[in-house]
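Feature request, filed as a ticket because there's no other form

It would be nice if the structure record came with a short human-readable summary line next to the tokens. Right now we just get the raw output. Example of a typical job, pasted below so the devs can see what we mean:
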Amino acid sequence: MRIGELAEITNVTKRTIDYYTNIGLLKAERSTSNYRYYDHSSIERLLFIERCKEKKMSLQCIKKLLLDKNVEEIDVKELSLKMKGLKKEVDKVLSTLHKGNANSYEYIKKNISPEALSLIQTLLLLLSD
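Raw output as currently delivered:
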């Protein structure tokens, strides 16, 4: 299907689809007349990207997920549970930091997951702008 058809089916703008294609989130085949054609798996992939964006995931994070797994293999419920778990972990870290004693920093270093640490670093970068 052409980009306009994909845009209509998924309710995503052609410009957004073009951008996702340019950054490698979607794949398109080119015709001899240089039209982009997308296969039917692009619909699921695009809808997955949009669901992740609704959950405030960065395009870089989404791209990593798509490279690690096929969209068909990604369980959105599992992903949602993982995000809730990270939120609880970050909330616990923030609570510990608010207590402000020297032991709290050691506790955080020993008990925080790499995923939560990465999330905190990303949040700090966003807040520093």
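Something like this underneath would help us a lot:
The chain has a mean pLDDT of 81.
The CA atoms of residues 91 and 101 lie 17 Å apart.
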